[in-house]
Specification:
With 545 residues, the chain is of the alpha/beta class. The chain contains 19 helices and 15 strands. Helix 15 crosses helix 17.
Length: 545
Amino acid sequence: MRTRTAPTPTAAHEPTIEIAGRLGPRYDEILTPEAIAFLAALHDRFGARRHDRLAARLRRRFEIGNGHDPQFRDDTRHIREDDWTVAGAGPGLEDRRVEITGPTDPKMTINALNSGAKVWLADQEDATSPTWRNVIEGQLSLRDAIRGELSFTSPEGKRYEVTATETPTIVMRPRGWHLPEQHIRFTDRMGRTLSASGSLVDFGLYFFHNARQLIANGRGPYFYIAKLESSEEAKLWDDIFTFSEQYIGIPHGTIRATVLIETLPAAFEMDEILFELRDHIAGLNAGRWDYIFSIIKNYRGRGARFVLPDRSEVTMTVPFMRAYTELLVKTCHKRGAYAIGGMSAFIPNRRDPEVTERAFEKVAADKKREAGDGFDGTWVAHPDLIPVARAEFDAVLGDRPNQLDRQRPEVEVSASDLIDVHIGRPITATGVHGNVSVAIRYIEAWLRGLGAVAIDNLMEDAATAEISRSQVWQWVHQDQATEDGTPITRDFIEGLIAQVLGEVDRREGDRFDDAAEIFREVALGQEFPAFLTLPAYTRHLVDAD
């Protein structure tokens, strides 16, 4: 195994980075000595604070699980009540009415840049399986795309090139704080060696190689920040941004972030998150799928009152989802920040007109609601959905780039509104089977290096798989039953696992047995892993490629 390290240390415990992953073609263009030195500096200054914040998450989750419901913070009341605004849109982010999301492999990068969307969320997080190859080759795709050098030829001989005269503004999403990068090792000043932070690796490599070129292109280094749980985590990112700007010598405030509000604790600190990032933030996004997962994760042991029904019944119009999105729009516009809507999971099928028509109808209704509620833009997962979403936002925005002037003073959301999870719908046998099937099929694809997967005409990523497995865990541990009276026990779920494994199309080299093993651990184990990707990554993706 080849390795590369930062320059020779001048002290016994000078912070160093070691590359433990295999070096493929052109990897040295990303893993340069200068970029590695930057990663070492990031980990030296911010690695310990990252661990502190992760520990704070555990404490908060323990408190909620033991009956202490989240509240709006008394110690930050002055921030919520004071008059202040944020930096807002950077160059190229003025109009965000339709954003397309997707992984960063060459083909998907080219498709996104040709899509006609205003923004492309270049996703190194939930839509990417974090194999070492995907991590570094995704960086290569982005590097080449930003310089107008990207092309791709498929194994079948089809050539892909960027042909659009106007391409979307790139907003890159690094992995969340919880995810390590075990192919890169950091040795700190005490001589301790740990896996690197996936967040700092993704952010650091992209920023170091591309910030100046993006500025020259008339855009900037822009980031989606995932899975924040507190304003202290936002402050950590703000300090990283400030340090990084100083490190390469660009003006303070050049970086722009859009924070996904996709955890329950973050929903209680939207003002505070905006305030801590006020020099660097463009907006907030309503990350619906992870938000639902966060509700289940935090309330999984709090009794039947907090049990959700079939995943398909947890729509954007149920009380707690409605309260969260209404508060997000009001908070953003009060502070001059863009409010970006989420992603409907329905996707078209070009071989099935009936499925496509249904997807168009569902997505149009979703985007009409968002535009009517005051959102400034939205997400789609497929290029064919861009005209559908654009039509709904064009109908509200017209030629205006946003609707920041819509202040929503009539919205009043209480702490109890944000945790009002009563929906009044049953758990069905079909819903339980669907969760088991989706989770196993998604995990199987993820283990093969795919992060965004079309399953049953829905776009599934790590967040939707998390909902599926966490609901199963909660239903089993809260002694729930389906509407026909069937108890949801471990044995019942084991039967469904066997059924799913018999239903799928098995092929040589598939990963369904490994996927079923992971599913059992994260859905049927006594303990509840915070993220299914943590054990799956450590067991199956480290050194796998």
